[in-house]
Amino acid sequence: MKRKIRVAILFGGKSAEHEVSVKSAKNVADAMDKTKYDVSLIGIDRAGHWLPPQKSAALLGATSVPSSETGIALAPGENGEIMGADDLRGQRIDVVFPILHGPFGEDGTVQGLLRLANVPFVGAGVLGSAVGMDKHVMKRLLRDAGIPIGKFLVSTEASPIPFARAKEELGLPMFIKPANLGSSVGISKVTDEATYDLAIKEAFEFDTKVIIEEFIKGREIECSVLGNDNPIASVPGEVLVHSEFYSYEAKYLDENGASLQIPADLPADTVKLVQETAVRTFNALCCEGMGRVDSFLTEDGRVIVNEINTIPGFTNISMYPKMWEASGISYSQLIDKLIELAIERFEWQQKLKTSK
């Protein structure tokens, strides 16, 4: 009998998006074909401690990962062997499926660790993860690649942007957000100087760099991308926001905050433009495996890229798997393909020389 592939689902994390990660991991674990995969769960608490599989398994019914004095680790060069877990002693992980959102998980840090541990992992590598997380670097690369983006400014503690300049260059309203975060955490819509000052202060609570963006009037269109060297795009979906904007509350807490239309009601030529733009974005940012590209569709038919998510949500209402399902790839088939892509990339990397 063919041995099952041993997959470790890595979730939780030291991030403001911790709860979303837990929900996503539960869905991935439930959807994995247990006849193909031997699943191990590795939860990371809010302090950054990695928890053994038995303790991690109990966390998926909760919304957060409790602290623990007993930790585990992936050692560099050990080809996926987990240290410190009695129930995995002597065993090796074949592939890691990171379901980590935000800093310390989606930004290249964990991806670098997994490269050092010499184990395949799902999703973008170190470079794609890092530039996909940093909205400032992301926008500069997209701009240089000729991909349409909105106007933006960058504010830091050392070089703050006064309200008058932001208003002059971007107009009102405008959006303020941490440069390295997702799930709409720390994002504010600004209409005057008072809300501007409050929004800047809040965004700096989550990051040392803040992005200030122009308001773009348009439909919120998303598109999933899948692949390594020859990525493909799903049918687009549309986020129909019923609140002021697509905030964290509208995404995850308020059941009436937004609704999803998949596939989006778009003419064929616009669907093609959205898909082509999503793949161009994916390639320009050196991404691999998976990504969800979020764009605005203006009244005059332009597609303006907002951002990419290199580890999109996998909850039961998340757009990434739902768009693939509408494209003919089921949730379990999507997981299979993502794992295949991870192993494919790893095998290619193993053929590269590391010395003369």
From TrEMBL:
Family annotation (InterPro entries): ATP-grasp, ATP_grasp_subdomain_1, D-Ala_lig_Van_CS, D_ala_D_ala, Dala_Dala_lig_C, Dala_Dala_lig_N, PreATP-grasp_dom_sf
Cofactor binding notes: Binds 2 magnesium or manganese ions per subunit.
Gene Ontology molecular function terms on file: ATP binding; D-alanine-D-alanine ligase activity; metal ion binding
Binding site for ATP: 135, 175-177, 183-184, 213-220, 306-307
Catalysed reactions listed for this entry: 2 D-alanine + ATP = D-alanyl-D-alanine + ADP + phosphate + H(+)
Keyword Manganese part of the UniProt annotation: yes
Domain ATP-grasp: 139-340
Pfam families: Dala_Dala_lig_C (PF07478), Dala_Dala_lig_N (PF01820)
Pathway where it operates: Glycan biosynthesis; Cell wall biogenesis; peptidoglycan biosynthesis
Keyword Coiled coil attached: no
Location of this chain's protein in the cell: Cytoplasm
Active-site feature positions: 17, 183, 318
PANTHER family registered for this protein in UniProt: D-ALANINE--D-ALANINE LIGASE, D-ALANINE--D-ALANINE LIGASE A
Family: Belongs to the D-alanine--D-alanine ligase family.
Task of the protein: Cell wall formation.
Name listed for the protein in its UniProt record: D-alanine--D-alanine ligase
Source organism per UniProt: Candidatus Kaiserbacteria bacterium RIFCSPHIGHO2_02_FULL_55_25
Gene from which the chain derives: ddl
